[in-house]
Design goal:
alpha+beta; GMP Synthetase, Chain A, domain 3; globular; cytoplasm; 125 residues; 4 helices; three-stranded mixed β-sheet
Length: 125
């Protein structure tokens, strides 16, 4: 169970890391991919922030994630600059691909095809 402090730090990291991506993102992964922070989980000791990212407008999502991992220190430094007066210790960051929205659209598309083929059954049942 997450503590209040974990939730607060996670929200601060999420908000501020989004701004870091706006400032530094095009220098790291280019202008084409759209990268958004969907969720942040912080460990109980507040030493690690797991940042979940959605990546759009590119077929090479893993490559974008790898480029960000290579620039991890630079991104952490930029995050630390924004958080320096808000938290005592800047958490280390790890990046994870969040494909929840992609899966949702894929499942919705499958349901749409089933409805079009009348394989869903009637709604009265």
């Amino acid at each position: 169970m997450e503590t209040i402090k974990q939730k607060q730090v996670a929200e601060l990291v999420k908000r501020n890391f989004s701004m870091v991506l706006q400032d530094e993102g095009t220098n790291i992964y280019g202008a084409t991919p759209l990268v958004t922070v969907t969720n942040v989980k912080v460990t109980p000791d507040l030493s690690l922030a797991k940042i979940y990212l959605s990546i759009y407008n590119t077929e090479h999502k893993q490559e974008v994630l790898l480029e960000m991992a290579e620039e991890k220190n630079r991104l952490k430094q930029a995050l630390g600059y924004r958080l320096r007066k808000l938290v005592r210790r800047i958490p280390d960051v790890d990046f994870y691909l969040d494909d929840t929205l992609d899966e949702m659209f894929r499942i919705d598309e499958l349901f749409g095809r089933l409805r079009a083929d009348n394989q869903m059954g009637s709604e009265e049942e």
